[in-house]
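A sample copied in:

***
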Amino acid sequence: MPVPGDKRTIASEDDYAEWASGRGVNDSPAGLASLLFDATRDVQRFCGRDFLPTPALPFVLDEAGHPTTTVTPGVPLMFHGDGGFTLAVRDIMRIDSLTCAGSALTDPRGEPLNFTYDGRPCTQIVRDPYYPFVGEGYSSDAMGAGVVYTMPWPERTPVVVTGRWGYCEVADFPHEIIHVTCELAWLETPEARGFTAMGLTRTKAANVEVGFDGGAQRKQRKADVLAGLDAYRRMEFL
């Protein structure tokens, strides 16, 4: 989730240098940090996701005042139920607590299952509509009878989810997300704005040099680059 004053980016300057070296372009353009920050914003807006995880904060200092341990505090975000059993939430890597209408809940589960082990974020929290439990085991008869033990998320009722938000740890970002961020940053450099860098040319007409405006081409190039992340889009948050 966005944090005020947070200047972290999906791709680091080292990532950019590696990406640029394989493409024969300048690997350290002026203002690179700002270019990567803007590109990160564009990627997250396009995908409807906050890829960057909640930052860790120092909480133990040594005698010199340096942090010796870090903790990543849970951050609460509010969502609203729609009367169903599935609540779509922003990407979350760790769920600490849930409250619905001010009451703590322990029965919901995050999905996809095992999201904490396979590097994927939780994208929805589910309350099982049926929980047939009889004696020491499960009963198909109870399920057939339609016994509902869990209530759905009440419509328009606030649900507060506290945890660590984000897609994954920075070190685990998929390569395609890093590469798209780098290319978007490059497209805003003076080098990319030049005609030859965009595959355009200048010509002469009646001894007057004529240039072709690359703005439209660059805009289309950005759209094409972002389209490579279609698989990561979350339409419900666009």
Notes: Residues 70-165 form one domain. Confidence is low (pLDDT under 50) at residues 133-148, 200-206. The radius of gyration is 24 Å.
